[in-house]
Amino acid sequence: MARYRSEIRTGNAQKALLTGVLCAILIATMCLTFVAFSSVDANGVFDASAAAQGSAYAVVEVGSLRLLKGENVSARLPMASTTKAMTALVVIENTPDLNAVVSIPDIAVGVEGSSIYLRKGEHLTVKELLYGLMLRSGNDAAVALAVNTCGSVEAFAEKMNEKARSLGLEDTNFVNPHGLSAKGHYTSAYDLAVIAATALRNPVFREIVSTKFITVASRDGGETRYFANKNKILYNYEGATGVKTGYTTEAGRCLIASSVRNGMEVVAVALNHYDYFDLCSSLMDYAHENYVLERVLDKDAVYAEVKVKKNYRVKSAELHVTNDFFYPVKKDGSEKLRSETEVVDEIVAPHSKGEPLGEVKIFMDNRLLFAEKLYTIYDIDKKGWLF
Fold first, then answer.
1. Annotated catalytic, 259?
2. Which pLDDT tens digit goes with each residue over 266-305?
3. Which listed residue (39, 55, 81, 258) is catalytic?
4. For residue 37, what are the contacts with CB-CB under 8 A and spacing of at least 6?
5. How far apart are the first and last CA of the chain?
6. What is the pLDDT of residues 356-375, one digit of tens each?
7. 159-169: per-residue pLDDT in tens?
8. Active site residue 74
9. Which of 137, 188, 258, 259 is catalytic?
10. Predicted model pTM
11. From 55, 84, 188, 281, active-site residue
């Protein structure tokens, strides 16, 4: 009887152990399924590396850089080939002649990942390489452009970081010009949106990233290259203007998308989102449906009139801002903008029109948004009385 009870206890223990193992397997499977839902590669394979990084998104208005909607907007994440938005901007700003011909260096041949299949010693213009960079995401084009611009990939990366610092970006650092995974290479959704918005103000950048297809003939007897833009936003979204796709195992699926409707341009960024085209489309829809641009500064408006001393011909001078400025506000009227002007009591001649004499401050719901300096539109000389 004692042995029989012992066997029963042993059988129960084995059943309990088996039940525990099955439960553990079930829980693990459920967890993996949950994570994989947002972290699979182009072939539907679970991407553990990208899942570990987290994800983020943001949409901003291009002129003001106002964040209209976002999640984890300051999280530092790898960004894959969306890196190339900064690469293109730095090349354009630091190349006097974009039609200059580049001889492809050996270091740019056979770079891993996306490629336009450059050959050592063949010749393309800087602008042709930029098309290969932004339409076909050529990592070899990125290296060729970096070396041509700064002499080395390392020097070019530093130039990229200088540009990032000049834009006030605190959550961005570049190690290379193409976005292949590297320690210390990261950005945030908001920073990347600022980079793209800044770049879109450059007409050459805008022209390139909005191009759907271009043909590049060989100068060296090779085959003609046909660059079709990988960015589906250009084909499927009303008012689309750019910008760049990206993917690596570490970064996951990344996208910068931009569009213009009713005079307002927005940039949407998705970092490590499987449905990145749908997400960016919905972010831009939200922005266009809920916000409208309001003119808050008018360069032709007179913001103050100030007395002038020591010039008998000019008794007073009008003060203006140097540029028009628009700001996105909610269409439902829930956001109210107002301005306050502070100026000097008087102008003592001589006075240079480049010297500010006050400022106009723009507030939203008693929160200061920004301030703009006020100037005269002409120089004021010192004129003495005639004797």
1. no
2. 999 999 999 999 999 999 999 999 999 999 999 999 999 9
3. 81
4. 274
5. 136
6. 999 999 999 889 998 999 99
7. 999 999 999 99
8. no
9. 137
10. 0.83
11. 84
